[in-house]
Amino acid sequence: MTAHDLVRNPRFVRWGIAFDRLPAGAWIALQALALLPAWVWMARRLADGADDPLGLLALAALATLVGVHRKALRASPALGWLAAAAALTLAATMLRGTLAPLLASLLAVLALAAALLAFLPRQVAATPVLLLAVLALPLLSSLQFYAGYPLRVLTAEAAHWLLAPFFTVWREGSTLRVDGRLVIVDAPCSGVQMAWLGYFTAAATALWAGLADRTVLARLPFVGLTVLAGNVLRNTLLVAAEGAGRPLPAWGHEALGLAVLGAVCAAVAWQVQRPVVHPLSLGVRHAHAA
């Protein structure tokens, strides 16, 4: 259609302008509707008890983020993120049935995250939004299956070295023999759930503090180290109690786990939101002190 035709058809122009100015919420809703098969699979996986429902917390965080910025959503979306959303949606649709459902759903949640980033204000960092989208997947049981045992072995080895000065300790796989008592580092002690909550805390804190992507990416490695240290500490204390012949009761086991989890999440939140110290400002501070 030529420019002359557009002038002669004002109705077409009006419809075009109306479509171009469609509210951001409507665009995001259409994007979510296009990915409906992924949401159905995720809902079924949660409904049959195959995975923990922690992903709902990540979805709630994303919904809250959109709600907070609802009045500042862009009228003209970022074309790069919009193109990424379209490409990921197309890939998620075409590869469903070819890829494993979890991988196809990964493409879907990344497509939705890209659509959100296309309309969210520019100051909202992309890294925590993408991280929350990944955490929304029902992936804990898969992580437990593929990464649970290596994490349990790593935790058992670290506990072995920490307990060696106080007990006679031997390790075989994820099992410890402490002063003749057999202690198994089982699946709940792998730290997978603690890792999920640690990264969720990091993403939520980064969005709350309004951090830039560069800062978030620089501080993410600390999350893994903190989770690993917390999980090793929790398991070491539990194994030490078992080895000493004074195992904690069920409520004590839960209380210790919650206390360490709270400390880990607090440490992650502090590390993520702490002020950025630039070398130049540090040098000026030292000069003033001198």
Automatic annotation (TrEMBL):
InterPro entries (alphabetical): Exo/Archaeosortase_dom, Exosortase
Main location per the UniProt record: membrane
Protein keywords: Cell membrane, Hydrolase, Membrane, Protease, Transmembrane, Transmembrane helix
Subcellular location: Cell membrane
Domain of life of the organism encoding this protein: Bacteria
Name of the protein in question: Exosortase Q
Transmembrane stretches, start-end: 24-42, 54-72, 78-95, 102-120, 126-146, 190-209, 216-233, 253-272
Keyword presence, Transmembrane helix: yes
Pfam families: Exosortase_EpsH
Mode of membrane association: Multi-pass membrane protein
